[in-house]
Amino acid sequence: MLAIDVKDLRKQFSVQKNREGLGGALKDLFKREYNQITAVKDISFQIPQGEICGYIGENGAGKSTTIKMLTGILVPTAGHLRVNGFIPHKEREKFVRGIGVVFGQRSQLWWDIGVIESFQLLRKVYRVPEADFKQRLDELVERLQLSELLNRPVRKLSLGQRMRCELVASLLHNPSILFLDEPTIGLDIMVKTEIRDFLKKINREQGTTILLTTHDLQDIEALCSRVIMLDDGRIIYDGGLDELKSRWSKGREVHFQFGERPDLTVLRNLTEGLPGVAWSLEELTAAMWLPHAVNVSDALARVVGGGVDIRDIKIIETNTDEIVREIYQSGTASKEATEKLAQSSDSVSKETVHHG
């Protein structure tokens, strides 16, 4: 069974046009005009149970709007979606029992009461039996080391402490799907690492499906095997993280530490004939740049067998953050989205002709 099934999902908003000047303001009082803004443009994807999927894109790409439709907060303008077999905005009461949600910039905890009291209120909201609640709470509190925080008011927690409590709150009713919208925003590296480790553990041990939106692409690298990338409301990439790197990454860099300074001409001669390979040298350290078309093992074998005094080797992959930044800065994202839409339209046209 699919955890999430989305087909041709679209969301439009009516945004009021504000006319200029005093006269325009007076006209707006009596007759308002609106623009139609399409935030999500006929997207389709499926997420099987037990997968951790990263949902990424620039601000305004449509990530949060999608999450709000998947969690039943917003009603789609068009298209179909099912989450755990339910239509979120139509079967709200049954649907929410199977999902957990964490919005990094909004809290589901009550600000002025103790953390444990918020948990007790959520137990009643989700109708969790007392015995199940206690067992689940004890397990989560131990894993996230929250025992000393339970009696503190939420307003007295640090951001990292609050986010750990938010995770517990979202998991108290043992949901099968967890939606995370910027869960590590503003956190220091230690807290981020703790949260990532915790999420990997619940996914591995309990099969919890996780859909993660984030601007911190280290979250994606640490957690996700699959990435869905949005640009201007359209999906421009849906696939594995490794494929994303090989498709858009410029290449890899291999750093060599030598016992004595080598001759740069000698190094270049060792990799002669390998297309696109470039060398730079600084004292006892050299960097060999390899495009993805060149096999790393072949290049390394040539250098290692070349009689130079190598003390250390380090392979540096282009990270996801650099790749995504390059995609958007170069305008490749818009181009990919346009091409994908054109292919989709062409496919529909052919199908129409065939059936006609």
From TrEMBL:
Q: Which residues form the ABC transporter domain?
A: 24-257
List the signal peptide residues: none
Compositional bias annotation for Polar residues: 335-347
Q: What keywords would UniProt list here?
A: ATP-binding, Nucleotide-binding, Transport
Top-level lineage group = Bacteria
What's the protein here called? ATP-binding cassette domain-containing protein
State the residue spans of region: Disordered.
335-356
Molecular function per GO: ATP binding
Any single Pfam family the record assigns to this protein? ABC_tran
